[in-house]
Design brief:
Layout lengths: L1 H4 L1 H6 L4 H10 L5 H33 L4 H8 L31 H29 L2 H24 L5 H15 L2 H12 L5 H8 L2 H16 L6 H20 L4 H4 L12 E2 L5 E2 L5 H6 L4 H6 L3 H27 L10 H7 L1 H21 L2 H24 L1
Antiparallel strand pairs: 1-2
Helix pairs in contact: 4-7, 4-9, 4-11, 4-12, 4-16, 4-17, 6-8, 6-9, 7-8, 7-9, 7-12, 10-18, 11-12, 11-17, 11-18, 16-17, 18-19
Length: 399
């Protein structure tokens, strides 16, 4: 038994190469605060890159399925390379033609919707298993694999452009596998941040940190829109390379917990020990090894007070958010605004305003929840307020 348990401390205290490099420059161990800053910054960019690679599909939708060639020529004819040339010699840019088979047919929009369903289904199923694997494996390695895999299959979707691939099942399989890799992100980054931060001011911290979702969506929209003129494949390959690069950074520098780098938790005011009636201090968080031995199962997780109502709250919030994420640019590009239709890149840029509001709202909600110490009331209030503009938006759409 002793021989089996002795290697554990060495494994727990094996620091990432990036941390060792920073300590060699500083010529002293990094403080708890410095590790916290690294965790916030690195995980912020990690999950932002997840959403940046996820957002590209919505930007390219209106290019793959322009509804008809007549629609494209009518509203995007200014994109021809030379309108002064004779029709026989006139060369239209790739996004001015009939879209991209098989998405340019009468059922093109339905096929694109099927891809979204396949991605989100794989993502949902993968989240269940990712939570289990994340509790039982090294989160730094697990997150790196997920990010590099996401980058690979996001890029493979774009490879269909240069490979002239028009088989629907190619894109379907790519989206399913990409969804499985994408599911590694959220459970991992939340677990790492939870290891480093206690409850004090967690609402504000999480509000600022959670802006990674909106920042990623905005970044993905702007990058994908800017690259459309070079070919829609680039709108997938570049974000794919970005998330793979950030994944390598995660592998080199992310400390998954204070115990993994041998840092004393008592340096942090948010992890200050609590006192019982006999003034005996008790740590707020147990050691890394204890957490791994007591990983929470699926049924046990639902029995935790507050999990079920907050899960339902997040379900309906995500239902609206993902509708906007996947279909808002497509809707804008196919809807007349003041009698005019926006181009695909302009529609993608305009759709980022939704995520700008998400950044402001997330930080504000976090600050309010800390001041009132009422997480549930704050969440419910924001959900109710969210209904008003959505109802007004739907009424104006059908009027």
């Amino acid at each position: 038994m002793d021989s089996l348990s002795e290697p554990l401390p060495e494994r727990n205290y094996k620091k990432p190469l990036g941390i060792l490099f920073l300590e060699s420059i500083k010529v002293s161990p990094l403080s708890f605060k410095t590790h916290q800053a690294i965790v916030l910054i690195v995980t912020f960019f990690a999950y932002a890159s997840y959403h940046a690679s996820r957002k590209t599909t919505s930007i390219v939708k209106s290019v793959l399925d322009p509804e008809s060639s007549d629609f494209s020529v009518k509203f995007f004819s200014w994109r021809t390379t030379s309108l002064s040339e004779p029709p026989g010699r006139r060369k239209l840019s790739w996004f001015l033609g009939d879209g991209w088979s098989p998405f340019n047919g009468s059922n093109g929009t339905a096929l694109l919707g099927d891809l979204d369903v396949a991605f989100l289904s794989a993502y949902a199923i993968g989240m269940f298993f990712s939570g289990h694997f994340g509790d039982r494996t090294n989160l730094r390695i697990f997150l790196t694999i997920g990010m590099v895999g996401t980058g690979l299959f996001t890029s493979l979707y774009g490879v269909g452009y240069w490979g002239n691939i028009h088989n629907f099942y190619y894109y379907l399989v790519i989206q399913i596998i990409a969804g499985l890799f994408q599911s590694t992100g959220w459970p991992s980054v939340v677990a790492v941040v939870g290891n480093w931060f206690g409850k004090k001011k967690r609402g504000l911290i999480m509000g600022i940190w959670n802006a990674h979702t909106s920042v990623g969506n905005i970044t993905g929209s702007l990058i994908a829109s800017a690259l459309l003129s070079y070919g829609w494949g680039w709108s997938f390959v570049v974000p794919g390379l970005m998330i793979a690069f950030v994944g390598l950074v995660i592998f080199l520098i992310l400390p998954i917990s204070p115990a993994s780098v041998g840092v004393d938790q008592e340096e942090d005011e948010w992890h200050s020990p609590k006192k019982n009636e006999d003034d005996v201090t008790e740590p707020l968080l147990s050691s890394e090894t204890v957490v791994k031995e007591k990983a929470v199962g699926f049924i046990e997780a639902w029995k935790i007070p507050g999990v079920a109502p907050f899960a339902l709250c997040l379900f309906f919030a995500k239902l609206v958010a993902y509708t906007f994420l996947y279909w808002l640019p497509f809707y804008v590009s196919h809807t007349a605004i003041d009698g005019k239709y926006l181009s695909s890149d302009a529609a993608g840029n305009l759709s980022t305003l939704f995520d700008v509001g998400g950044i402001v709202g997330g930080i504000l909600a976090g600050h309010i929840s800390d001041r009132l110490n009422a997480r549930a009331i704050t969440a419910a209030s924001f959900m109710f307020v969210c209904e008003w503009p959505l109802c007004s938006y739907n009424n104006s759409s059908f009027s």
